[in-house]
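U., I forgot to send this yesterday:
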Amino acid sequence: MKLRVISNYGTEERTVSENATREQIVHTVDYLDWSGFHQVVLEKPNGDWLDVGGSLDPSDGLSIMYEESGNKHVVAEAPELPEELKHALLGYLAESDDWKQAYGWR
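Result:
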């Protein structure tokens, strides 16, 4: 899966890896300063994706959304910590549904 970071409300974008690893995801999420606005995106070759991000600034908040088979989903209850974003990304990379169940998605 492709791992990308989009920062500063979409004005900066970089590809971290074309074939993301757990270590790259952990490093990427831990490295970012979440007082600023960032999105971390994992994209499958078929076009499905998971986008986690936002800011710890209460005016922005954090969010998790994904697209699967053309259907978009946004988490109803916002995550509070970057650790939750990392958990979702690692679950998505592992192709596990645990991260979905944590937010009430099936």
